[in-house]
């Protein structure tokens, strides 16, 4: 429990002495009321294990962001894009703010995305928002700031073409080589390409997730970058997604033992480093990422006439506009087919008169 004592500073004579994580700390105030309010809040937060030392929130946001970017586990090409977006747009707007100031700057973030960055592609603006939110999320987990307000900010469609730099589609032989190099985790390559899974979803697949004699994959969870299992993106615990399974993937999984396909605690970051290493060995361009395999899944379906409404459901897009925005360029033109249909309809109709 904290106590209020007489401080040595005549301008702030009311000092609250408190203990956090076994360490004694002090904070002085000009009035007894301020000291009492701080004492009450501190005692509550320490008991609830939610205490945040606001002095830690004074860390410079720009420095914290650069440290986060340095530890980002992405391909060299993707890291370069993230760094370019941060240096060109986020840093000038937020580098001089503290973490605490950035955490409350919801309006400033919205103005940045809708103002100076409005002319950029959806992908670039999404990266900027992702960097800001991720840095603040990390600060919350580290106890530097309380929960921040930079959540739920939408990105308006500005008509710009999405960034397709990671639409890299390797050959079958290149992916086969990669899968062999990944040893016990090579099946992830075919789960991502054959079912459109995200990397974290692929690492969390269980044998029992294959249903209907292996023809349907029902996924419930994913592995985050800390190696922890959590619900699917934008879904609550227990919610799932069903995806059709191609025959070649059913054959690969058929004789595998029950349980998680890649163990109970797959290491996301270690896997990603191995993925990047094996992609380089296979001669695949640096822009290739695990998400490129998801793009290949969608491309295979849309270019062969599968309805985008079904594809959106299988890849987990709650809003089909996202699917159109990212993959609309893959949908074959229906104009030629429409002409033949209209001609056939006219012939049937005119002959029946």
Which descriptors would you attach to this protein?
mainly alpha, hpI Integrase, Chain A, 3-stranded antiparallel sheet, 15 helices, single chain, about 50% helix
Give the spatial strand order of the biggest sheet.
1-2-3
- Name of the CATH homologous superfamily of the largest domain: Intergrase catalytic core
Q: So how many helices?
A: 15
Examine the secondary-structure arrangement and name the CATH architecture of the largest domain. Answer: Orthogonal Bundle
Total DSSP E strands: 8
Q: Give the CA-CA distance, first to last residue.
A: 93 Å
Radius of gyration: 26 Å
The dominant shape is elongated
What does this structure look like?
With 353 residues, the protein is mostly helical. It has three domains: 3-51; 58-141; 172-330, hpI Integrase, Chain A. Helix content is 48%, strand content 10%. It contains 15 helices and eight strands. It has a three-stranded antiparallel β-sheet, with helices on one face. Strands 4-5-8 form a three-stranded antiparallel β-sheet. The radius of gyration is 26 Å and the shape is elongated.
Briefly summarize what is shown.
It is built from 15 helices and 8 strands.
What is the element layout, followed by pairings?
Elements: E1 3-6, E2 14-20, E3 23-29, H1 32-47, H2 61-70, H3 76-94, H4 99-103, H5 106-114, H6 122-141, H7 172-181, H8 187-195, H9 199-203, E4 210-211, E5 216-219, E6 221-223, E7 229-231, E8 241-244, H10 247-253, H11 268-281, H12 290-302, H13 308-315, H14 320-327, H15 335-351
Antiparallel strand pairs: 1-2, 2-3, 4-5, 5-8, 6-7
Helix pairs in contact: 2-6, 3-6, 7-11, 8-12, 13-14
